[in-house]
Amino acid sequence: ACTITRTFEIGNGCLLNFGNREVVVATNAKLDTGSGNVELRAGSLRVADRGTITSTAPGVGMILIQVARNLAIERGVGRGAIDLSSSSVTGCIEIVAGGDVRIAGNLLSVQSGQAGRGGDISVEAGGDIVVESGASVSVSGDPSASEGGVIDFSAGRDLQLGATLDASGASTGAIDLLAGRDVVIAGIDLT
User: Fold this and answer.
1) Helix (H), strand (E), coil (C) string for the chain
2) I need a labelling partner for 135 at 20 to 30 A (CA). Which of 2, 53, 75, 107 fits?
3) How far is CA 58 from CA 4, 14, 34, in A?
4) Sign of the C-alpha dihedral, residues 101, 135, 27, 150?
5) What distance in Å separates the CA atoms of residue 67 and residue 57, rounded to the nearest whole number?
6) What is the C-alpha to C-alpha distance for residues 44 and 117, in angstroms, rounded to an integer?
């Protein structure tokens, strides 16, 4: 396994290719993607409790994460997070996993400013997608000024949503759900 234990700033256009290895973003570690486009490839990815893949730039870009097996965003004392939220231009998060995707922490591209829209989150899994109770998945916009973004989940097997998916805003965004077998939904917020 390859364990990331500190903060790394990733430049625009970078490809982080870990081959078939498991990658762990450890507690308090951070991958900062800035305002550019970044691609991460690995055998599997685990974002630990309080580990983050994020952007500290005012206008964020896109991150594409491709794993051959499973991806997990964990929760413990705090939450692991993949977060491309911004008060200006929000980012796009695209996850493609050959196995399962389990979200217990945060998966966010929230627009908190007075103009624009929430971001885009796309998750495609060959197996199950599980969003655990207490997780946060949101592409919301500012309720007074900006529209919600787009959430697109596609599971080869089951899609289990134990937490609310949020695409709310001054005008609503969109949520698309597709599964090869069953879809179980706790809640969707398009208000």
Assistant:
1) CEEECCEEECCCCCEEECCCCEEEECCCCEEECCCCEEEEEECEEEECCCCEEECCCCCCCEEEEEECCCEEECECCCECEEECCECCCCCEEEEEECCCEEECCEEECCECCCCCECCEEEEEECCCEEECCCCEEECCCCCCCCECCEEEEEECCCEEEEEEEECCCCCCCEEEEEECCCEEEEEEECC
2) 2
3) 24, 19, 8
4) positive
5) 25
6) 31
Tokens 């965004």 correspond to what residue? 173
R_g of the chain computed on alpha carbons = 15
Side-chain half-sphere exposure of 156, counting CA atoms within 13 A: 11
Residue reference for tokens 């691609």: 39
Q: Which residues contact 191 (CB under 8 A, 6 or more apart)?
A: 168, 172
Q: Please give the structure tokens belonging to residue 135.
A: 């997780």
pTM above 0.90, yes or no: yes
